Amino acid sequence: MAEGLQKRLQTEYEKLKSVQKDYQKYVTTRQQLDAQLQENTLVKEELDNLEDGANVYKMMGPVLVKQDQTEAKSNVQKRIEYINGELKRHETIIKDLETCGSKQGKDDYEESQTLAAGKIQTMAKHALSLKILGECSTTKARVCQLTLPHQVVDTPVFMPVGTQGTLKGILPEQLEDLGCQIMLSNTYHLGHRPGPELLTQAGGLHNWMRWNRALLTDSGGFQMVSLLKLAEITEQGVKFESPHDGSEMMLTPEESMRIQNSIGADIMMQLDDVVSSTTSGPRVEEAMHRSIRWLDRCIKAHKNTSKQNLFAIVQGGLDETLRNQCIEEMTKRDVPGFAIGGLSGGEEKQHFWKMVNISTDSLPKEKPRYLMGVGYAVDLVVCSALGCDMFDCVFPTRTARFGTALVPSGQLQLKKEVYANDTRPIDDNCECLTCRNYSRAYLHSIVTKETIACHLVTLHNVAYQLNLMKYVRKSIMEDTLPKFIQNFMLEQFPHKQYPQWAVDALSTVGVTLL
Amino acid sequence: MMKFVVRSSRNGVRSGVITELPGRPDVTIETPMCMVYSRTGSVPHLTPDVASKIDGTPLITHIPINSLIGHLSAVKQCKKGIRDFAVLGDTLLYGSLQDPAEPVFPGKNDKHSVAVWSKGGRISVNPEMYVEVQEAFKFDWFAALSDGDTDKQTSRKRVRKSVDRTLQWLDESIEKLQKSDVQSSERLFGVLEGGFEIDQRVHSAKETALRPVAGFCIEGFNTAGPETEKVDFTEIKSILHETLTHLPSEKPRIMHQVWPPHLVLEALEAGIDIFDSSFPYIVTERNAALIFDFKYNGTRSQVIKPNGGSDSESATRVGYEIDLKDKRFESDFSGLLAGCSCYTCRNFTRSYICHLVNTRELLASVLLMIHNVHHYFEFFRHIRLSIQEDKFLELLKLINSQRNVPEKT
């Protein structure tokens, strides 16, 4: 009996999976068609503005080829008609698929979901889907495929930070070449300059900065902690005094959503009430409750649910009860993903890892978990083992600009005289542009002097972070993560002077260091 | 060994060709040409993968040694010298003493050495050290050690000293180089000095021409640095006219300073062949984009930009550049320059670059540098074209029409 049900469920489940896959495919195509339509409409407007007899050129590869004006106009018109037709066709298919999905029978569907829990989850009503590809049999680590409107992202993933809509001197194309699938930008900065109106005019940040892959924006809330002297937090929101021109700026959950909608990132973060992780007492509890209320306001104000995902941020300071309470409340809301917030603010690491650990215990498995502000190599490896999927940190790119390169054994300060005649690359095993070409000696001669030193070391450090995560994913898939962690930690701490917090954190997930 | 032939010379403007490059027999380089200006062997702001996005990059790289001389021991370890150390591929490498885009502080040279500056401070270079530099760096061409610390105000006595020292160092260098590596001595460019003293200039030219040098470098009209773009060239031009007649025609003439478009053309008329791209670097450093028109027989036409905007400027442009700090570009979604095919213009808007400039992001310099260097190299391509088509005067007229006119707002 149970076996029969199991089999039936398996078949239904496979069917459902294939429908969901098709659905996802058509939704993506429709999004692409939308973009094409918009582009062509713009071109048409431009062509209509031309005077008779003006020359029109078409870009074919690197060359401009002259075109007849009437021909160009009719071509664009034809293209628009075709795209409109395609759009209609796709809409119909998508509608059909939606009804087909619900026809599956609600009971079967729910049963199969319970059975499949931990294997696959798709959330058609959100603009993302998360597929668990592999799980570590020892730790809580997992490898997922996170499908976002602009990019399929392999997790655990490190997201480099491009605060003002640019990653510190690196071209979007260079980042793509490094295999970067998702990067972060800051709402607070972009909201101030260039501002949401201009971003809307520019067609969103992707288009403006020419980044075709996934983007994540924070809420602007983190800057509250770093700029606290200038901020006043009330139930309504956060009042800032702009450090740029002294003007007053009110960041409410609604305003944060408005700015983030204008940016158009694949993932946006709720505005949360951040208190410094070293604070304790009733303020922490107040902030936790307020963050839940603000989450509701964010959900309500979010205008672009079909293309942007709003993540909730778990607060609660270093208090286990508050954290759990927060998670319990927030998971009642239908959000596509969760972030673990309010950490990495100078708290003791022993507190830090415990908060991460209890969060991943309670957060739903089928949704992505983003640990905010974490990016040191050891932290990335330990917190991947604790079950986090996404990370971000300014450290690798910031330290690069001061001439510090990340290597498996730690860091190299390239300014130091010992590298003046060192003909080796930063890392023999690294395949980034910098390591393929330049010696430590050359980098030593330019660090802190020429901007290309910043670019070269930034490229390497981003490559290092991305590679580290690649190895983490690979070893989870091969189910050799504990071994990987042992070797990694030994390389970082050759005299086995492991930090106690890492030893403790890893032992709770069954990893003993060498 | 490289060969230089002057193919034509009209109104003083020479058109030539460099052939038989070491290791590159397939390549010829046409003059007038612009060397790639580099700092520490790299194009400023551009990593090599980004620099390679610039089409038609000239095959000679100018490497001022001031910023590298402190790393002599590291360069020595490299088999192919600076080519390996700074990963320079197979372009022809021309080394010089001072960076044309960096100010040189006067009064620090003496009869034994020349002062050069790097971010690490001042270094005094004497002939022994300079020979050691060439032995380590292995340039294809390099300018001899010279005392160019003279300008319009310099006394006759000081000018004479500069000429004599430079000649004496040239002889010492040739002798030392011939002892260590004969080939090296054939790569040396003699440096002409003489300030604004015509008899000293002629003396310097005649004497240098007697030495076995590969070419000539002309300096000593002003000290190096960004300010050289503002020099009054009238007197310099007439001195050059007079001086260069004393040089053999079949050797190339280099002059490095910051060259805005009209000065390039003036120097061409005076008989200079080779320049460098420190001008677009200086323009980038002030957050500006070159927009001057060099299409002397082209009709300007509207071009659809990748982002949907179109050229908002009228057919007649004024001024060489636009300032991207200017807030009026905040919502300008056209490229830096309509019709430009550079990587920056194909992908990014004035609006985005204006944002990068105003938020002091490093990418601003990267994108501006790509465009400015591309535009400047294209300018040189059009110079060569105008000579071929016998339309140099039309180009000159077009450039002068855009010169010194305040930018329209």
From TrEMBL, chain A:
<feature type="binding site">
    <location>
        <position position="432"/>
    </location>
    <ligand>
        <name>Zn(2+)</name>
    </ligand>
</feature>
<comment type="function">
    <text>Catalytic subunit of the queuine tRNA-ribosyltransferase (TGT) that catalyzes the base-exchange of a guanine (G) residue with queuine (Q) at position 34 (anticodon wobble position) in tRNAs with GU(N) anticodons (tRNA-Asp, -Asn, -His and -Tyr), resulting in the hypermodified nucleoside queuosine (7-(((4,5-cis-dihydroxy-2-cyclopenten-1-yl)amino)methyl)-7-deazaguanosine). Catalysis occurs through a double-displacement mechanism. The nucleophile active site attacks the C1' of nucleotide 34 to detach the guanine base from the RNA, forming a covalent enzyme-RNA intermediate.</text>
</comment>
<feature type="binding site">
    <location>
        <begin position="218"/>
        <end position="222"/>
    </location>
    <ligand>
        <name>substrate</name>
    </ligand>
</feature>
<dbReference type="InterPro" id="IPR004803">
    <property type="entry name" value="TGT"/>
</dbReference>
<keyword id="KW-0328">Glycosyltransferase</keyword>
<dbReference type="GO" id="GO:0006457">
    <property type="term" value="P:protein folding"/>
</dbReference>
<dbReference type="GO" id="GO:0006400">
    <property type="term" value="P:tRNA modification"/>
</dbReference>
<feature type="coiled-coil region">
    <location>
        <begin position="2"/>
        <end position="53"/>
    </location>
</feature>
<feature type="binding site">
    <location>
        <position position="430"/>
    </location>
    <ligand>
        <name>Zn(2+)</name>
    </ligand>
</feature>
<feature type="region of interest" description="RNA binding">
    <location>
        <begin position="373"/>
        <end position="379"/>
    </location>
</feature>
<comment type="similarity">
    <text>Belongs to the queuine tRNA-ribosyltransferase family.</text>
</comment>
<dbReference type="GO" id="GO:0008479">
    <property type="term" value="F:tRNA-guanosine(34) queuine transglycosylase activity"/>
</dbReference>
<feature type="domain" description="tRNA-guanine(15) transglycosylase-like">
    <location>
        <begin position="139"/>
        <end position="491"/>
    </location>
</feature>
<keyword id="KW-0175">Coiled coil</keyword>
<dbReference type="InterPro" id="IPR002616">
    <property type="entry name" value="tRNA_ribo_trans-like"/>
</dbReference>
<keyword id="KW-0808">Transferase</keyword>
<dbReference type="GO" id="GO:0016272">
    <property type="term" value="C:prefoldin complex"/>
</dbReference>
<feature type="active site" description="Nucleophile">
    <location>
        <position position="392"/>
    </location>
</feature>
<dbReference type="Pfam" id="PF01920">
    <property type="entry name" value="Prefoldin_2"/>
</dbReference>
<feature type="binding site">
    <location>
        <position position="435"/>
    </location>
    <ligand>
        <name>Zn(2+)</name>
    </ligand>
</feature>
<keyword id="KW-0819">tRNA processing</keyword>
<dbReference type="InterPro" id="IPR009053">
    <property type="entry name" value="Prefoldin"/>
</dbReference>
TrEMBL record, chain B:
<dbReference type="InterPro" id="IPR050852">
    <property type="entry name" value="Queuine_tRNA-ribosyltrfase"/>
</dbReference>
<feature type="binding site">
    <location>
        <position position="345"/>
    </location>
    <ligand>
        <name>Zn(2+)</name>
    </ligand>
</feature>
<dbReference type="Pfam" id="PF01702">
    <property type="entry name" value="TGT"/>
</dbReference>
<keyword id="KW-0819">tRNA processing</keyword>
<feature type="binding site">
    <location>
        <position position="371"/>
    </location>
    <ligand>
        <name>Zn(2+)</name>
    </ligand>
</feature>
<feature type="binding site">
    <location>
        <position position="342"/>
    </location>
    <ligand>
        <name>Zn(2+)</name>
    </ligand>
</feature>
<feature type="binding site">
    <location>
        <position position="340"/>
    </location>
    <ligand>
        <name>Zn(2+)</name>
    </ligand>
</feature>
<dbReference type="GO" id="GO:0046872">
    <property type="term" value="F:metal ion binding"/>
</dbReference>
<comment type="subunit">
    <text>Heterodimer of a catalytic subunit and an accessory subunit.</text>
</comment>
<keyword id="KW-0862">Zinc</keyword>
<protein>
    <recommendedName>
        <fullName>Queuine tRNA-ribosyltransferase accessory subunit 2</fullName>
    </recommendedName>
</protein>
<dbReference type="InterPro" id="IPR036511">
    <property type="entry name" value="TGT-like_sf"/>
</dbReference>
<feature type="domain" description="tRNA-guanine(15) transglycosylase-like">
    <location>
        <begin position="15"/>
        <end position="400"/>
    </location>
</feature>
<dbReference type="GO" id="GO:0008479">
    <property type="term" value="F:tRNA-guanosine(34) queuine transglycosylase activity"/>
</dbReference>
<comment type="similarity">
    <text>Belongs to the queuine tRNA-ribosyltransferase family. QTRT2 subfamily.</text>
</comment>
<keyword id="KW-0479">Metal-binding</keyword>
<dbReference type="GO" id="GO:0006400">
    <property type="term" value="P:tRNA modification"/>
</dbReference>
<dbReference type="GO" id="GO:0005737">
    <property type="term" value="C:cytoplasm"/>
</dbReference>
<dbReference type="InterPro" id="IPR028592">
    <property type="entry name" value="QTRTD1"/>
</dbReference>
<comment type="function">
    <text>Non-catalytic subunit of the queuine tRNA-ribosyltransferase (TGT) that catalyzes the base-exchange of a guanine (G) residue with queuine (Q) at position 34 (anticodon wobble position) in tRNAs with GU(N) anticodons (tRNA-Asp, -Asn, -His and -Tyr), resulting in the hypermodified nucleoside queuosine (7-(((4,5-cis-dihydroxy-2-cyclopenten-1-yl)amino)methyl)-7-deazaguanosine).</text>
</comment>
<keyword id="KW-0963">Cytoplasm</keyword>
<dbReference type="InterPro" id="IPR002616">
    <property type="entry name" value="tRNA_ribo_trans-like"/>
</dbReference>
